[in-house]
Amino acid sequence: MATGPADSNAEDVSLDLARELTQAIEDEQFFLVYQPTIDLQTNAFAGVEALIRWRHPRRGILSPDTFIDELEASGQIMPVGRWALNTACAQGAAWHDKGYRFSVSVNVSERQFETPAFFQDVADALSSSRFDPSLLVLEFAQATLLGGGEATAPRLELLRTLGVRFAIDDFEPGGSALDELEQFPIDIVKLDREFIAGLATSSEASSLVHRLVESSETRHLQVIASGIEDSDQREQLQNEKVHVGQGYLFSKPHEAAEIDRFLEDFAIFSGKPL
Hints:
The protein is 48% helix and 20% strand. By secondary structure, the chain is an alpha/beta fold. The chain has a single domain (27-270), classed as EAL domain (TIM Barrel, Alpha-Beta Barrel). The N and C termini lie far apart (60 Å).
């Protein structure tokens, strides 16, 4: 099939990005930020989610939307994902050494999860950091688990022997979604931020949240609402007994030093233990 100028340009951009990402790995341009999660029922600090950023030498700070697909396609997600896991566990252990006890969530890509070495990567990250495994949450996209075939459940069960917990990211309630996930040892479901954004205008969305929370009690699941932007959303989710909230209403993602200051301020102003 013949390719036109547009196809050539796209290929050139992809090649340039791949080269830049290789350089980014070599020059350690990636870094992690952490977004707090808050218990909606008690207002206690619940944990943080580790999120990757790229400190690009010319374009400034880049979010993963601009580079994660290329990392996946090129296979570079493996060393970067391993670095992110090690860094997040080390930082979690450092916070715990200061007397804080909360969970740290790390996103896992489909390619990482399907690689046999991933189990050892997690084991090594926990061992080298001495981070409490019960406080490490591995987050998976719903499609990663449901599309992984028969090998998915055994992989999760093997990881479970390390003592870690599992979350489904960007979960959209409704239909048989939760029933399909029941075959896996899931601990947490994180409601999709776009779904949360539609709560105020959709009675159906509110009903789905209500049913999800009721169902979570019998399944021993924790429900986290992502992308909470205003107090009305928080109040609605709180009334529905959603367990934990995350979003700009509470805090945007910060580097570790800023999270330290957030923790100090949170303890002072909330009066809640950490």
